[in-house]
Amino acid sequence: MFKLQFENSRGQKIELFGAPFRLFGVEGLGDVEADIQSQVVPYQDGDALIDVILRPRYMTVELKITGNDAAETEANRRKLASVFNPRLGLGTLKYVRGTEVKLIKTVAESVPIFPDGPTNRGATFQKALLHLKAPNPYWRSTSITEEPAFEPLFEFPFEGEFEFGVTRNDRLIYNDGDAPAAFQVDFYGPANSPIIENLTTGEFIRINKRLEEGQTLKIDTTDGVKSVTYVDEDGAETNVFHWIDLSSTFFKLGVGENDITCHCAISNRQRDFDIYYHKLFTAV
């Protein structure tokens, strides 16, 4: 059995599973319509496929709110309505099944529906219906941080293992999700014109700037929120989108293998950058 946990933009949280918000059924965990884009040319049988775009995800959640008495049931009903207030915009819905956790951004399409009648409402229970919309239809994994690769050089035959090696600024990332994944990367100074490159595709992001010791550059390749942010020694942040080399591409981690490397001309750190991402899935 799975649980649904929701956190709105105010930080209010609620779990939909057992009492007092007993989960009865969910539709839309997997079924998302696709917009098939094609074109027809003269004298062609059928048409030519151009692309396939997934439409927003719509979910319906059936609940039974319970309480020890009418007052407690009413309080729980108000809590559900408050947490799923459509005016609060996007919140985070979490699907939890054992150790499996998937996340998706959703917004309530309406105030929760509380049907009337003796089979739907009583002193100690209230049935409820939630209609949710996820503008981005993909479920995503929890955040993944790629660790630097370690290249062993040699080891001494002591009791136990004592291995020498070097930390390399390469990441071999295997994206076994269902779609290319945006990522966030943090460059650390000192570095002169740092660059991150996907050797698998030849795409790269280069920064035409020098970072000093204690300075950080954050890049986000997520659609709709693409950004380049400079963080100084005191933690102050500045938008520096204009620092990006014009030949750069805000690439994503393709499905399958991605050979990621970083070059920083004057860096003397063991770790020139950190990279974070979420895998994307069409269903749970």
What does this structure look like?
With 284 residues, the chain is mainly beta. The protein folds into 2 domains: 3-137, Elongation Factor Tu (Ef-tu), domain 3 (Beta Barrel); 149-281, Sandwich (Jelly Rolls), CATH 2.60.120. The chain has one helix spanning 70-83; strands at residues 3-7, 13-16, 21-27, 34-39, 48-54, 57-66, 91-97, 100-108, 121-122, 125-134, 139-140, 144-146, 149-156, 162-168, 170-175, 183-188, 191-192, 195-198, 203-206, 210-211, 216-220, 227-231, 237-239, 256-263, 273-277, 280-281. The strands form 7 sheets. Strands 1, 2, 3, 6, 7, 8, 9 and 10 form an 8-stranded antiparallel beta sheet that branches. Strands 12-25-16-21-22-23 form a 6-stranded antiparallel beta sheet, with no helix packed on it. The longest helix is centred in the first third of the chain and has 14 residues, at 70-83. The protein is globular and about 70 Å long. The model is unreliable at 149-154 and 162-167 (pLDDT under 50).
